[in-house]
Amino acid sequence: IFATVTVDEFAPGAKSVFSFTIPDHKSGKLELQYKQDYCGITGSIGLTPQPIVEATGALGSEGFSVGGELAFDTANGALIKYNAGIGFVKPDFTASLVLAEKGDLLKASYLHTVSPVSRTTVATEIAHRFSKNENTFTVGGLYELDTLTTVKARLNNHGKLAALLQHEWRPKSLITFSGEVDTKSLDKAAKVGLALALKP
């Protein structure tokens, strides 16, 4: 049995959430949330003798945001997660810079809307993994065939080519066909996928 107790607005913009699973007495967690128009902060702590403490925060204004998250394991006294990011959103483009995976991965991305009518969008991402001194460059695009059908494709500098076709066959119910091939190793079998999402 999973249970959640929520206390809304115990102070302006603040909320507390207590969740637990029965009979697992170590599953308890207390979370505090504070939200305003351009700011959001959360903090949580496991209700155990040596809990994991987590915190997230985001600040923003019109078209700009910055945020981060971290998790601290009190059992071994170490940070087990920390990520940070900054983003810009304008009517025809979105750009972001994200430091993830405990500072090992730096990603810069840019998405540009070519045609708002057909929702044609192109995107690029450059990622650098510090532990391997490895760079990945990815380009991709999205094209709306009609209001219910979307095609997406992407290719990276390692030769991975992926595409998907998604169709909304009834409101909020989607069927997706996807595939991926390694263009540098065409003798390997391609990956093919089918996903079905249903909403009553």
From TrEMBL:
* Gene3D superfamilies from the UniProt entry: Porin (2.40.160.10)
CDD domains attached to this UniProt entry? Porin3_VDAC
User: What Gene Ontology terms describe what this protein does at the molecular function level?
Assistant: voltage-gated monoatomic anion channel activity
Q: Which Pfam families match?
A: Porin_3 (PF01459)
What InterPro entries does the entry give?
Porin_dom_sf, Porin_Euk, Porin_Euk/Tom40
Give the domain of life: Eukaryota
Among the entry's GO cellular component annotations, what is one? mitochondrial outer membrane
Query: Known PANTHER family for this protein?
Result: GH26960P-RELATED, VOLTAGE-DEPENDENT ANION-SELECTIVE CHANNEL
Q: Which family does the similarity line name?
A: Belongs to the eukaryotic mitochondrial porin (TC 1.B.8.1) family.
Name this polypeptide is given: Mitochondrial outer membrane protein porin
The protein's organism comes out as Ceratodon purpureus (Fire moss)
Q: What is the lineage of its organism?
A: Eukaryota, Viridiplantae, Streptophyta, Embryophyta, Bryophyta
